[in-house]
Amino acid sequence: MMIKPFDLFIIGGGINGTGIARDAAGRGLSVFVCEQGDLAEFTSSASTKLIHGGLRYLEYYDFRLVREALLERERVLEIAPHIVGPLRFVLPHDGGLRPAWMIRIGLFLYDHLACRKTLPGTETIHLRQSPIGLPLQDRLDTGFLYSDCWVDDARLVVLNAMDARERGAEIHTRTRLISARRESGLWYATIEDVASGAQREICARMVINTGGPWVSEVLQDRLHVATTKHVRLVKGSHIVVPKLYDGAHAFLFQNPDNRIVFAIPYEDKFTLIGTTDDPYDGPLGKVEISPEEVTYLCESISRYFKQKVVPGDVTWTFSGVRPLYDDAAANASAVTRDYVLDIESKPGEPPLMSVFGGKITTFRRLAEHAFEKLAPFIPGIKPSWTASSPLPGGDIADGNFERFLGDVGVKWPFLPQDAARRMAHAYGTRITSIVGSATTWGDLGQDFGAGLTQAEVDYLIREEWARTTEDILWRRSKLGLHLSETGAAALSQYLRDRA
Predict the structure, then answer these.
(1) What pTM, to 2 d.p., does this model score?
(2) Which of 29, 226, 362, 493 is most buried, most CB within 10 Å of its CB?
Protein backbone atom coordinates (compact mmCIF):
# COMPACT_ATOMS: atom_id res chain seq x y z
CA MET A 1 0.00 0.00 0.00
CA MET A 2 1.30 3.46 -0.91
CA ILE A 3 2.25 5.56 2.12
CA LYS A 4 1.18 9.20 1.89
CA PRO A 5 4.28 11.33 2.44
CA PHE A 6 4.53 14.08 5.02
CA ASP A 7 6.12 17.35 3.95
CA LEU A 8 8.46 17.31 6.96
CA PHE A 9 9.82 14.60 9.22
CA ILE A 10 11.35 16.30 12.29
CA ILE A 11 13.68 14.35 14.54
CA GLY A 12 13.70 15.71 18.09
CA GLY A 13 11.04 17.26 20.34
CA GLY A 14 13.06 19.97 22.04
CA ILE A 15 12.62 23.70 21.55
CA ASN A 16 14.04 23.78 18.02
CA GLY A 17 12.08 20.76 16.79
CA THR A 18 8.75 21.92 18.19
CA GLY A 19 9.39 25.52 17.12
CA ILE A 20 10.01 24.43 13.54
CA ALA A 21 6.98 22.11 13.67
CA ARG A 22 4.74 24.96 14.81
CA ASP A 23 6.02 27.29 12.10
CA ALA A 24 5.66 24.62 9.41
CA ALA A 25 2.16 23.56 10.41
CA GLY A 26 1.03 27.18 10.39
CA ARG A 27 2.29 27.47 6.80
CA GLY A 28 0.07 24.55 5.80
CA LEU A 29 2.78 21.87 5.67
CA SER A 30 2.14 18.34 6.92
CA VAL A 31 4.50 17.52 9.79
CA PHE A 32 5.56 14.42 11.74
CA VAL A 33 7.67 14.93 14.88
CA CYS A 34 9.54 11.98 16.38
CA GLU A 35 10.87 12.37 19.95
CA GLN A 36 12.62 9.49 21.71
CA GLY A 37 11.62 10.64 25.21
CA ASP A 38 9.25 13.22 26.64
CA LEU A 39 9.00 16.70 25.19
CA ALA A 40 11.87 18.84 26.54
CA GLU A 41 13.17 15.87 28.52
CA PHE A 42 16.80 16.71 27.92
CA THR A 43 18.53 20.01 27.06
CA SER A 44 15.43 22.16 26.63
CA SER A 45 14.31 21.71 30.25
CA ALA A 46 17.80 22.22 31.70
CA SER A 47 18.34 25.88 30.87
CA THR A 48 18.77 28.77 33.31
CA LYS A 49 15.08 29.59 32.66
CA LEU A 50 15.85 32.88 30.91
CA ILE A 51 14.82 34.63 27.71
CA HIS A 52 17.77 36.95 27.35
CA GLY A 53 19.99 38.71 24.87
CA GLY A 54 23.18 37.22 26.27
CA LEU A 55 25.01 40.14 27.85
CA ARG A 56 28.27 38.23 28.13
CA TYR A 57 28.27 37.35 24.42
CA LEU A 58 29.23 40.97 23.75
CA GLU A 59 32.69 40.14 25.08
CA TYR A 60 33.11 37.78 22.14
CA TYR A 61 31.81 40.41 19.65
CA ASP A 62 28.78 38.24 18.86
CA PHE A 63 26.71 41.33 18.05
CA ARG A 64 24.44 39.64 15.49
CA LEU A 65 23.36 36.97 17.96
CA VAL A 66 22.84 39.48 20.77
CA ARG A 67 20.74 41.77 18.57
CA GLU A 68 18.62 38.87 17.32
CA ALA A 69 18.14 37.57 20.86
CA LEU A 70 17.17 41.03 22.15
CA LEU A 71 14.56 41.37 19.41
CA GLU A 72 13.22 37.88 20.13
CA ARG A 73 13.09 38.62 23.87
CA GLU A 74 10.31 41.15 23.28
CA ARG A 75 8.48 38.97 20.75
CA VAL A 76 8.39 35.88 22.97
CA LEU A 77 7.22 38.03 25.87
CA GLU A 78 4.32 39.20 23.70
CA ILE A 79 3.20 35.78 22.46
CA ALA A 80 3.55 33.97 25.79
CA PRO A 81 2.94 36.45 28.63
CA HIS A 82 1.85 33.64 30.96
CA ILE A 83 5.12 31.65 30.86
CA VAL A 84 7.49 34.56 30.13
CA GLY A 85 7.86 37.68 32.27
CA PRO A 86 10.14 40.69 32.82
CA LEU A 87 12.99 40.24 35.28
CA ARG A 88 15.39 42.89 36.58
CA PHE A 89 18.99 41.81 37.08
CA VAL A 90 21.49 43.27 39.52
CA LEU A 91 25.12 43.15 38.39
CA PRO A 92 27.36 44.15 41.33
CA HIS A 93 30.68 45.67 40.32
CA ASP A 94 33.59 43.66 41.68
CA GLY A 95 36.64 45.89 41.40
CA GLY A 96 39.05 43.03 40.95
CA LEU A 97 37.38 41.80 37.76
CA ARG A 98 35.95 43.63 34.75
CA PRO A 99 36.35 47.42 35.08
CA ALA A 100 33.24 49.54 35.57
CA TRP A 101 33.72 51.39 32.27
CA MET A 102 33.66 48.09 30.37
CA ILE A 103 30.42 47.05 32.07
CA ARG A 104 28.81 50.43 31.34
CA ILE A 105 29.71 50.19 27.65
CA GLY A 106 28.39 46.64 27.49
CA LEU A 107 25.09 47.61 29.13
CA PHE A 108 24.76 50.65 26.86
CA LEU A 109 25.09 48.36 23.83
CA TYR A 110 22.68 45.90 25.44
CA ASP A 111 20.08 48.66 25.79
CA HIS A 112 20.52 49.99 22.26
CA LEU A 113 21.33 47.06 19.94
CA ALA A 114 17.59 46.47 19.59
CA CYS A 115 14.47 48.49 20.32
CA ARG A 116 12.90 47.92 23.75
CA LYS A 117 9.11 48.21 23.79
CA THR A 118 8.29 47.36 27.39
CA LEU A 119 11.45 46.51 29.33
CA PRO A 120 13.15 49.33 31.28
CA GLY A 121 16.75 50.28 30.59
CA THR A 122 19.88 50.16 32.71
CA GLU A 123 20.33 52.05 35.97
CA THR A 124 23.32 52.49 38.27
CA ILE A 125 22.55 51.75 41.92
CA HIS A 126 24.41 52.24 45.20
CA LEU A 127 24.16 48.86 46.85
CA ARG A 128 24.87 50.04 50.41
CA GLN A 129 22.04 52.57 50.18
CA SER A 130 19.48 50.29 48.51
CA PRO A 131 17.45 47.40 49.96
CA ILE A 132 18.62 45.43 46.93
CA GLY A 133 22.13 45.40 48.39
CA LEU A 134 21.16 44.04 51.82
CA PRO A 135 22.02 40.37 51.14
CA LEU A 136 25.36 41.29 49.52
CA GLN A 137 28.74 41.61 51.18
CA ASP A 138 29.65 45.10 52.37
CA ARG A 139 32.65 45.33 50.05
CA LEU A 140 30.23 45.75 47.13
CA ASP A 141 29.22 49.38 46.71
CA THR A 142 28.15 49.97 43.10
CA GLY A 143 25.89 47.88 40.92
CA PHE A 144 24.00 48.01 37.66
CA LEU A 145 20.35 47.16 37.14
CA TYR A 146 19.26 45.88 33.71
CA SER A 147 16.39 43.93 32.15
CA ASP A 148 15.85 40.47 30.70
CA CYS A 149 13.05 37.88 31.07
CA TRP A 150 12.38 34.63 32.89
CA VAL A 151 10.75 31.67 31.14
CA ASP A 152 9.30 28.28 31.97
CA ASP A 153 11.50 26.50 29.42
CA ALA A 154 9.83 23.07 29.40
CA ARG A 155 6.38 24.61 29.05
CA LEU A 156 7.61 26.74 26.16
CA VAL A 157 8.43 23.51 24.32
CA VAL A 158 5.08 21.92 25.17
CA LEU A 159 3.12 24.96 24.03
CA ASN A 160 4.92 24.99 20.68
CA ALA A 161 4.06 21.30 20.28
CA MET A 162 0.42 21.95 21.20
CA ASP A 163 0.12 24.77 18.70
CA ALA A 164 1.74 22.62 16.02
CA ARG A 165 -0.72 19.79 16.71
CA GLU A 166 -3.70 22.15 16.65
CA ARG A 167 -2.53 23.26 13.20
CA GLY A 168 -2.35 19.68 11.95
CA ALA A 169 1.07 18.33 12.96
CA GLU A 170 1.53 14.84 14.38
CA ILE A 171 3.62 14.84 17.57
CA HIS A 172 4.90 11.42 18.66
CA THR A 173 6.74 11.25 21.97
CA ARG A 174 8.62 8.21 23.23
CA THR A 175 9.13 7.22 19.62
CA ARG A 176 12.62 6.34 18.43
CA LEU A 177 14.04 6.72 14.94
CA ILE A 178 15.67 3.42 13.96
CA SER A 179 16.93 4.40 10.51
CA ALA A 180 16.04 6.40 7.42
CA ARG A 181 16.98 6.19 3.77
CA ARG A 182 16.47 8.13 0.56
CA GLU A 183 14.47 6.34 -2.10
CA SER A 184 12.59 7.53 -5.20
CA GLY A 185 12.78 11.17 -4.21
CA LEU A 186 11.52 10.64 -0.66
CA TRP A 187 12.84 9.84 2.80
CA TYR A 188 11.64 6.54 4.26
CA ALA A 189 12.01 6.27 8.03
CA THR A 190 11.54 3.31 10.35
CA ILE A 191 10.34 4.41 13.78
CA GLU A 192 9.74 2.43 16.97
CA ASP A 193 7.41 2.91 19.92
CA VAL A 194 9.77 2.85 22.90
CA ALA A 195 7.28 1.19 25.25
CA SER A 196 5.90 -1.56 22.99
CA GLY A 197 8.74 -2.02 20.52
CA ALA A 198 6.24 -1.82 17.66
CA GLN A 199 7.77 -0.47 14.46
CA ARG A 200 6.33 1.21 11.40
CA GLU A 201 7.51 3.12 8.37
CA ILE A 202 6.65 6.65 7.33
CA CYS A 203 7.88 8.75 4.44
CA ALA A 204 8.50 12.45 3.97
CA ARG A 205 9.65 14.91 1.36
CA MET A 206 12.37 16.28 3.65
CA VAL A 207 13.96 15.60 7.03
CA ILE A 208 14.94 18.14 9.67
CA ASN A 209 17.41 16.87 12.25
CA THR A 210 16.93 18.74 15.52
CA GLY A 211 18.49 16.02 17.62
CA GLY A 212 20.25 18.45 19.94
CA PRO A 213 23.16 16.63 21.60
CA TRP A 214 22.38 13.65 19.36
CA VAL A 215 22.46 15.64 16.09
CA SER A 216 25.77 14.15 14.90
CA GLU A 217 24.80 10.64 16.02
CA VAL A 218 21.51 10.90 14.13
CA LEU A 219 23.37 11.95 11.00
CA GLN A 220 25.95 9.17 11.13
CA ASP A 221 24.09 6.24 12.69
CA ARG A 222 20.44 6.78 11.69
CA LEU A 223 20.56 8.76 8.46
CA HIS A 224 23.94 7.46 7.28
CA VAL A 225 25.05 10.90 6.12
CA ALA A 226 28.61 12.19 6.43
CA THR A 227 29.16 15.79 7.60
CA THR A 228 32.03 18.11 8.37
CA LYS A 229 29.95 20.07 10.90
CA HIS A 230 29.76 18.93 14.50
CA VAL A 231 28.53 20.03 17.89
CA ARG A 232 30.66 20.64 20.92
CA LEU A 233 29.01 19.22 24.02
CA VAL A 234 29.12 21.49 27.06
CA LYS A 235 27.47 20.52 30.34
CA GLY A 236 25.56 23.17 32.25
CA SER A 237 24.49 22.37 35.81
CA HIS A 238 22.30 24.25 38.27
CA ILE A 239 21.51 23.99 41.96
CA VAL A 240 18.37 25.06 43.81
CA VAL A 241 18.62 26.19 47.45
CA PRO A 242 16.18 27.69 49.97
CA LYS A 243 15.49 31.36 49.22
CA LEU A 244 18.57 33.51 49.82
CA TYR A 245 16.97 36.96 49.65
CA ASP A 246 13.68 38.83 49.37
CA GLY A 247 12.62 40.58 46.21
CA ALA A 248 11.67 39.73 42.64
CA HIS A 249 15.06 40.66 41.14
CA ALA A 250 17.88 38.34 40.08
CA PHE A 251 21.65 38.71 40.45
CA LEU A 252 24.40 38.21 37.91
CA PHE A 253 27.85 37.65 39.44
CA GLN A 254 31.28 37.69 37.80
CA ASN A 255 33.79 35.02 38.74
CA PRO A 256 37.60 35.26 38.74
CA ASP A 257 37.67 32.62 35.94
CA ASN A 258 35.66 35.07 33.76
CA ARG A 259 32.53 32.95 33.94
CA ILE A 260 29.26 34.34 35.25
CA VAL A 261 26.74 32.83 37.65
CA PHE A 262 23.09 33.78 38.12
CA ALA A 263 21.02 33.77 41.31
CA ILE A 264 17.33 33.85 40.37
CA PRO A 265 14.11 33.78 42.43
CA TYR A 266 12.54 30.38 41.84
CA GLU A 267 9.21 28.83 42.74
CA ASP A 268 8.58 31.41 45.50
CA LYS A 269 10.57 29.57 48.18
CA PHE A 270 13.87 28.95 46.42
CA THR A 271 16.85 30.49 44.64
CA LEU A 272 18.13 28.99 41.38
CA ILE A 273 21.91 29.17 40.94
CA GLY A 274 23.78 28.43 37.72
CA THR A 275 25.34 27.63 35.47
CA THR A 276 28.55 25.74 34.90
CA ASP A 277 30.26 25.44 31.50
CA ASP A 278 32.28 22.23 31.30
CA PRO A 279 33.23 20.11 28.28
CA TYR A 280 31.27 16.86 28.27
CA ASP A 281 31.89 13.46 26.72
CA GLY A 282 29.73 11.16 28.85
CA PRO A 283 26.38 9.43 28.25
CA LEU A 284 23.72 11.76 26.85
CA GLY A 285 20.62 10.12 28.26
CA LYS A 286 21.25 10.78 31.94
CA VAL A 287 23.34 13.83 32.79
CA GLU A 288 24.01 14.62 36.44
CA ILE A 289 25.80 17.33 38.34
CA SER A 290 29.21 16.46 39.76
CA PRO A 291 30.33 17.21 43.34
CA GLU A 292 32.91 19.58 41.87
CA GLU A 293 30.19 21.55 40.10
CA VAL A 294 28.13 21.80 43.29
CA THR A 295 31.17 23.12 45.14
CA TYR A 296 31.96 25.57 42.33
CA LEU A 297 28.45 27.05 42.34
CA CYS A 298 28.32 27.27 46.13
CA GLU A 299 31.69 29.01 46.29
CA SER A 300 30.78 31.35 43.42
CA ILE A 301 27.64 32.55 45.18
CA SER A 302 29.36 32.77 48.57
CA ARG A 303 31.85 35.26 47.12
CA TYR A 304 29.00 37.78 46.95
CA PHE A 305 26.29 36.96 49.50
CA LYS A 306 26.70 37.50 53.23
CA GLN A 307 24.97 34.18 53.76
CA LYS A 308 27.32 31.39 52.78
CA VAL A 309 25.95 28.59 50.62
CA VAL A 310 27.28 25.08 51.17
CA PRO A 311 26.52 21.77 49.40
CA GLY A 312 24.28 20.71 52.29
CA ASP A 313 21.89 23.55 51.43
CA VAL A 314 21.13 22.14 47.98
CA THR A 315 17.50 21.05 47.61
CA TRP A 316 17.55 20.00 43.96
CA THR A 317 19.93 19.94 41.01
CA PHE A 318 19.54 19.60 37.26
CA SER A 319 22.00 19.33 34.41
CA GLY A 320 21.86 19.39 30.66
CA VAL A 321 24.19 19.13 27.71
CA ARG A 322 24.25 22.10 25.37
CA PRO A 323 24.90 21.07 21.77
CA LEU A 324 26.94 24.13 20.76
CA TYR A 325 28.19 24.50 17.22
CA ASP A 326 31.89 23.57 17.23
CA ASP A 327 33.66 26.76 16.16
CA ALA A 328 37.06 25.57 17.49
CA ALA A 329 37.07 28.00 20.45
CA ALA A 330 39.63 27.00 23.06
CA ASN A 331 37.41 27.79 26.07
CA ALA A 332 34.02 26.10 26.54
CA SER A 333 32.54 29.38 27.81
CA ALA A 334 33.65 31.12 24.60
CA VAL A 335 32.00 28.66 22.19
CA THR A 336 29.35 30.49 20.16
CA ARG A 337 25.71 30.15 21.22
CA ASP A 338 24.68 30.96 17.65
CA TYR A 339 23.17 28.30 15.42
CA VAL A 340 24.10 26.83 12.05
CA LEU A 341 21.53 25.40 9.65
CA ASP A 342 23.13 22.92 7.27
CA ILE A 343 21.30 21.59 4.19
CA GLU A 344 22.57 18.40 2.57
CA SER A 345 21.01 17.57 -0.79
CA LYS A 346 22.09 16.46 -4.23
CA PRO A 347 20.04 17.03 -7.41
CA GLY A 348 17.03 14.74 -7.45
CA GLU A 349 17.41 13.79 -3.77
CA PRO A 350 15.10 14.89 -0.94
CA PRO A 351 16.79 17.47 1.31
CA LEU A 352 18.07 17.06 4.83
CA MET A 353 18.53 20.00 7.18
CA SER A 354 20.50 19.65 10.41
CA VAL A 355 20.39 22.21 13.20
CA PHE A 356 23.65 22.74 15.07
CA GLY A 357 23.64 24.84 18.23
CA GLY A 358 21.15 27.52 19.14
CA LYS A 359 19.65 28.94 22.33
CA ILE A 360 16.14 28.87 23.70
CA THR A 361 15.62 32.62 23.25
CA THR A 362 16.02 32.49 19.46
CA PHE A 363 13.96 29.35 18.74
CA ARG A 364 11.26 31.24 16.82
CA ARG A 365 13.71 33.12 14.60
CA LEU A 366 15.69 29.92 14.04
CA ALA A 367 12.53 28.35 12.61
CA GLU A 368 12.01 31.32 10.30
CA HIS A 369 15.61 31.07 9.12
CA ALA A 370 15.12 27.36 8.50
CA PHE A 371 12.26 28.03 6.08
CA GLU A 372 14.15 30.84 4.39
CA LYS A 373 16.81 28.25 3.54
CA LEU A 374 14.28 25.55 2.65
CA ALA A 375 12.19 27.84 0.42
CA PRO A 376 13.77 26.54 -2.83
CA PHE A 377 12.51 23.05 -1.94
CA ILE A 378 8.95 24.21 -1.06
CA PRO A 379 7.33 25.96 -4.04
CA GLY A 380 4.79 28.55 -2.99
CA ILE A 381 5.73 28.41 0.69
CA LYS A 382 3.54 30.67 2.79
CA PRO A 383 5.10 33.65 4.62
CA SER A 384 6.28 33.64 8.22
CA TRP A 385 3.54 34.17 10.79
CA THR A 386 4.78 33.30 14.29
CA ALA A 387 6.05 36.73 15.44
CA SER A 388 2.64 37.94 16.60
CA SER A 389 0.54 34.81 17.04
CA PRO A 390 0.10 33.84 20.72
CA LEU A 391 1.13 30.43 21.96
CA PRO A 392 -1.67 28.37 23.57
CA GLY A 393 -2.95 30.22 26.62
CA GLY A 394 -1.08 33.38 25.70
CA ASP A 395 -4.10 35.26 24.34
CA ILE A 396 -4.28 37.38 27.49
CA ALA A 397 -5.80 40.84 26.96
CA ASP A 398 -2.97 43.37 26.43
CA GLY A 399 -0.56 40.78 27.84
CA ASN A 400 -1.49 41.99 31.33
CA PHE A 401 -0.92 38.89 33.46
CA GLU A 402 -1.78 40.43 36.84
CA ARG A 403 -5.15 41.61 35.58
CA PHE A 404 -5.77 38.17 34.09
CA LEU A 405 -4.87 36.59 37.43
CA GLY A 406 -7.38 38.85 39.13
CA ASP A 407 -10.05 37.67 36.70
CA VAL A 408 -9.18 34.05 37.51
CA GLY A 409 -9.70 34.78 41.21
CA VAL A 410 -13.09 36.35 40.54
CA LYS A 411 -14.29 33.54 38.27
CA TRP A 412 -13.09 30.70 40.54
CA PRO A 413 -12.89 32.17 44.06
CA PHE A 414 -12.46 28.72 45.61
CA LEU A 415 -8.99 28.27 44.09
CA PRO A 416 -6.24 28.64 46.71
CA GLN A 417 -4.17 31.74 45.94
CA ASP A 418 -0.93 29.84 45.30
CA ALA A 419 -2.66 27.31 43.05
CA ALA A 420 -4.48 30.03 41.10
CA ARG A 421 -1.24 31.90 40.41
CA ARG A 422 0.66 28.77 39.44
CA MET A 423 -2.07 27.51 37.12
CA ALA A 424 -2.60 30.94 35.57
CA HIS A 425 1.12 31.09 34.79
CA ALA A 426 1.26 27.55 33.46
CA TYR A 427 -1.89 27.49 31.35
CA GLY A 428 -2.91 31.09 30.76
CA THR A 429 -6.38 31.20 29.22
CA ARG A 430 -6.31 27.41 28.86
CA ILE A 431 -6.94 27.20 32.62
CA THR A 432 -10.61 27.05 31.62
CA SER A 433 -9.99 23.57 30.18
CA ILE A 434 -8.99 22.40 33.67
CA VAL A 435 -11.24 24.27 36.07
CA GLY A 436 -14.20 24.70 33.71
CA SER A 437 -17.56 24.73 35.47
CA ALA A 438 -16.22 23.65 38.87
CA THR A 439 -17.65 25.58 41.82
CA THR A 440 -15.64 23.97 44.63
CA TRP A 441 -12.13 22.59 45.02
CA GLY A 442 -13.63 19.15 45.47
CA ASP A 443 -15.11 19.33 41.99
CA LEU A 444 -11.56 18.99 40.60
CA GLY A 445 -11.26 15.41 41.84
CA GLN A 446 -8.51 13.75 43.83
CA ASP A 447 -6.23 16.21 45.65
CA PHE A 448 -2.58 15.11 45.49
CA GLY A 449 -1.35 18.11 47.50
CA ALA A 450 0.52 21.32 46.63
CA GLY A 451 -2.46 22.45 44.53
CA LEU A 452 -2.34 19.50 42.11
CA THR A 453 -5.68 17.84 41.38
CA GLN A 454 -7.02 15.01 39.28
CA ALA A 455 -8.54 17.50 36.81
CA GLU A 456 -5.12 19.02 36.12
CA VAL A 457 -3.42 15.64 35.82
CA ASP A 458 -6.08 14.43 33.39
CA TYR A 459 -5.61 17.59 31.33
CA LEU A 460 -1.82 17.06 31.18
CA ILE A 461 -2.30 13.49 30.00
CA ARG A 462 -5.01 14.39 27.49
CA GLU A 463 -3.53 17.58 26.05
CA GLU A 464 0.19 17.71 26.87
CA TRP A 465 1.58 14.21 26.30
CA ALA A 466 2.34 13.66 30.01
CA ARG A 467 2.65 10.00 30.99
CA THR A 468 4.84 9.72 34.06
CA THR A 469 5.16 11.27 37.50
CA GLU A 470 8.39 12.92 36.36
CA ASP A 471 6.67 14.43 33.31
CA ILE A 472 4.10 16.08 35.57
CA LEU A 473 6.17 17.07 38.61
CA TRP A 474 9.38 18.21 36.94
CA ARG A 475 8.59 19.30 33.36
CA ARG A 476 4.91 20.28 33.08
CA SER A 477 5.36 21.86 36.52
CA LYS A 478 7.97 22.12 39.25
CA LEU A 479 5.62 20.70 41.88
CA GLY A 480 8.29 18.13 42.68
CA LEU A 481 9.82 20.86 44.85
CA HIS A 482 6.59 21.25 46.82
CA LEU A 483 4.73 17.94 46.82
CA SER A 484 5.20 15.53 49.71
CA GLU A 485 6.46 11.97 49.18
CA THR A 486 2.97 10.77 50.03
CA GLY A 487 1.46 13.02 47.37
CA ALA A 488 4.00 11.93 44.75
CA ALA A 489 3.29 8.27 45.58
CA ALA A 490 -0.46 8.89 45.26
CA LEU A 491 0.10 10.50 41.86
CA SER A 492 2.18 7.54 40.69
CA GLN A 493 -0.55 5.15 41.80
CA TYR A 494 -3.20 7.21 40.00
CA LEU A 495 -1.19 7.08 36.77
CA ARG A 496 -0.78 3.30 37.08
CA ASP A 497 -4.50 2.84 37.69
CA ARG A 498 -5.35 5.10 34.77
CA ALA A 499 -3.01 3.40 32.29
Answers:
(1) 0.97
(2) 362
